[in-house]
């Protein structure tokens, strides 16, 4: 009996085990994690709009003055006004000259540019070779210094329309005894450094139309270069004897004679030249709009007779129409 009881118990236990193993497990329903809420896409800042680079004209108008390079020793085109005094309210920097401290044809032309723009005109006075070399490093805005338009200079400078022109001449001491250019063969002659006058004496290419060149330099000459051709005349007047004459604009020789310097023109015009305002091609600011504005100003000054009047005032001849 005991065995049967034990067996019966074992059978009951086995059935319970089988039942437990055979019943499918009841899985708790999977609770899905809520979908991750994506962060909204970053809104890109609109691309920065680069401000257009300021051009030179707008810069001049904003600051209220224009810086013009010119020669303080080139009478009657530009020279110091010893009777003038510097105004207290000038915008010109301390190392610049004001229109009250300068005078001459080029000075009046430069002032007319400033007046037309509604700004003050200030003058820088670098040496001529620095002006014609270009790469001004933004130290001045424009040259109004009777600069000849040549093909070589056009490589580094831009030019306005011409505002006038001059005849180039040879001058000698009034008591020199010379009567023609041929008399100067083998002599020494003076000219300003980096001028077309120096180029002509050296027999170089002037970069001018052939129709503007009327004579060749004397043979076998020695060229003495000074900072400006006006200094050549002043040196002769001071008794310097290492050269017998100089080449410059006829207007300069006329002024020398009027000032009492003992010089005279020798022969006729050797070449004529168109003169214009110049702009530095390497400027850090675009000069196009300034050059176009100066063209507009000069064209108006030609049309209304202003340039002719200034020429008559300073040269007693109208050099805005004929230069020989």
Order of helices and strands: HHEEEEEHEHEEEEHEHEHEHH
Distance between the termini: 156 Å
Can you identify the CATH class of the largest domain?
A: Alpha Beta
Number of strands: 13
Instruction: Enumerate the spans where pLDDT stays under 50 for 5 or more consecutive residues.
Output: 1-43
What does the average pLDDT come to? 88
- In the CATH hierarchy, the architecture of the largest domain is 3-Layer(aba) Sandwich
Helix percentage range: 25-40%
Number of helices: 9
**Helix- and strand-based class?**
alpha/beta
List the main descriptive attributes of the protein structure presented here:
single chain; 324 residues; alpha/beta; D-Maltodextrin-Binding Protein, domain 2; ten-stranded mixed sheet; three-stranded antiparallel sheet; 13 strands; disordered N terminus
